[in-house]
Write a structure and sequence with these properties.
Layout (H helix, E strand, L loop, with lengths): L14 H4 L1 H15 L11 H10 L4 H4 L10 E4 H11 L8 H7 L2 E4 L4 E4 L13 E3 L1
Parallel strand pairs: 1-4
Antiparallel strand pairs: 1-2, 2-3
Helix pairs in contact: 5-6
């Protein structure tokens, strides 16, 4: 069997890209079980980053380089971005979904099934991302 890429197995949009309640449920579970965060990536968050450094047996500065935006589970493939944009569309057209995606550097976490901000991280971070292309 040949190796397949994420682009080869794309089908319909994941439920969490279309359903805010499902997305929030999965995100909140990841916060509790895998320390997804920090809440505000623009704040210093010294306790959050100290815990991540301890988990990965490194220093805080290196821990801060392990972000969702460079995790191999962070899906920013064209089909997934289209799914997220479709799910973010506002029926009254006041919201530009692509502006939200770009502003948050959003991707889809293939490990925990939710829309994820590139400037956050979690305990399951894996080097080698993001997934792009198609």
């Amino acid at each position: 069997m040949a190796n397949k890429t994420v682009c080869d197995v794309q089908g319909k949009c994941p439920k969490a890209t279309q359903d805010i309640a499902e997305n929030t449920k999965n995100r909140n579970w990841t916060i509790k079980k895998y320390a997804y965060g920090p809440m505000n990536p623009d704040a210093a968050n010294p306790d959050f980053w100290r815990k991540k450094a301890e988990l990965f047996d490194t220093d805080v500065e290196e821990a801060k380089t392990a972000l969702c935006g460079n995790c191999s589970a962070f899906d920013q493939t064209d089909p997934m971005l289209e799914c997220m944009a479709k799910g973010l569309e506002d029926k009254n057209e006041l919201t530009d979904p692509w502006r939200l995606i770009v502003a948050g550097n959003l991707g889809y976490c293939q490990l925990f099934h939710f829309k994820c901000a590139g400037s956050r991280t979690c305990d399951a971070w894996v080097h080698g991302g993001p997934l792009r292309g198609c």
